[in-house]
Amino acid sequence: MNLYHSDWICDRLKDVSLINAASLPADTVPDYEFDYLEISNVNYHGIVDPEAIERLRYEDAPSRARRQVVKNCTMISSVRPNLQAVAFVDNGRKDFICSTGFNVVLPVEKRLSPKFTYYTLISEGARQYFEATAKGVGYPAVDDKDFGSFPMPLPPLPEQQRIAAYLDASCAAIDAAVVAKRRQIETLDGVRKDIIQKAVTRGLEEHPELKKTGNVWMNEVPVTWELVSLKRVSEMQGGLTLGKVYEGPLIERPYLRVANVQDGHLNLQDVTTIEVPEEVAHRVELRPGDVLMTEGGDLDKLGRGTVWSGEIPDCLHQNHIFAIRCFTHKLLPAFLAYLTASRYGRDYFEATGKRTTNLASTNSTKVGLFPIPQPSISEQYAICHFLDETLNHVTRIVNGIESQIATLNSYRKSLIHECVTGQRRITEADVARTRRSEAESVRR
């Protein structure tokens, strides 16, 4: 890999650093405690959540909790390097252990700046090298020999330190801009929820006259509306139980799994097929207009409806997905989908869902009892039309902000790549200017 500036020398990573220098010994006393970090809690930008670092006793820890982490080291994923789980440790946390899914790199500081090492290991060139040398299909990993042979650029140490300081300030400014834009998206999400909540529970009038319902979930609705249980204005279709053995002639059909029904949309990139008797297929076939609701999953997504528009012909569905078929002279599928996405709908399913440690579930009875505020069909059409247009406008704004975030992240990666390969040479004036800009943005 000849990516670096011709003025720079290059050496193997293992010759200018200590890799996995210390591990927990096999005879560690059972009551020994340590802070543990798993590979799933780290991404390209470092540790995702400091609270993800668990305090464990040795006897309760997984067997992969072995590698000791010290100040000024870089942890980088060796297992599934495509994850780009990379973190820099800039303080001396006592008894810090990470998963063997990481390689722990401690630079020889007379030759290699710790932070320059980190930026080089998250650069595009490093990513390409580790992905190219990883072995294995389902769970690829970079072996010790290939990892240690990574060609590390070695500009003069003062230049390494300038590059690291410049990237620290530049990346901090970029990351702050990304955080600000994500806050904008969160604000817009709140606006979106407020718009849906008002429209599906109060209609489009500014101050509608209300009446009491006597229902604990929604005690008031506009005077011209009714409040009915979902089972009174729809029918529910159950789905396929996977693993069941059928006899006789079978036909092959595509079918939806829970993973295909996402938060307010469908993910149809990976739709599998199943062989069933024709009469079974007919019984669990989806029809355009069905509202798909998941039986289990994360609590905040439980019972959230997505309208099926016939995207895949002759498609079936798993039994953990309810297909709600609205009586369209009483309830529009789109209106039901908006109801399930509203704060009112979320409150109902989150309160009535059965919770386990990490997941939650509902059942057909609770779905059927979901109280539906029911305006006339013409008013439902008007509400859905208003929400479609208004939320499409919000979505366009969100998409624009997400595009800006993608541009910032792309610029961050290209900036790191240019600096650690010598395509962009950094002077003391560059560092001073970037630090001034960072300080000014903080004051603002």
Helix content: 25-40%
Class from secondary-structure proportions: alpha+beta
* Count of alpha/pi helices: 10
Global mean pLDDT: 90
How many strand units?
26
What is shown here, in short?
By secondary structure, this protein is an alpha+beta fold.
Name its key features.
4-stranded mixed β-sheet, 36% helix, 10 helices, 4-stranded antiparallel β-sheet, elongated, 444 residues, alpha+beta
Task: Walk me through what this model shows.
The protein is an alpha+beta fold and 444 residues long. It contains ten helices and 26 strands. The strands form nine sheets. A four-stranded antiparallel sheet has the order 2-11-8-9, covered by helices on one side. A four-stranded mixed sheet has the order 6-3-10-7, with no helix packed on it. A four-stranded antiparallel sheet has the order 16-23-19-21. A hairpin with an 8-residue loop joins strand 8 and strand 9. Helix 4 packs antiparallel against helix 9 and helix 4 packs parallel to helix 10. The radius of gyration is 28 Å and the shape is elongated.
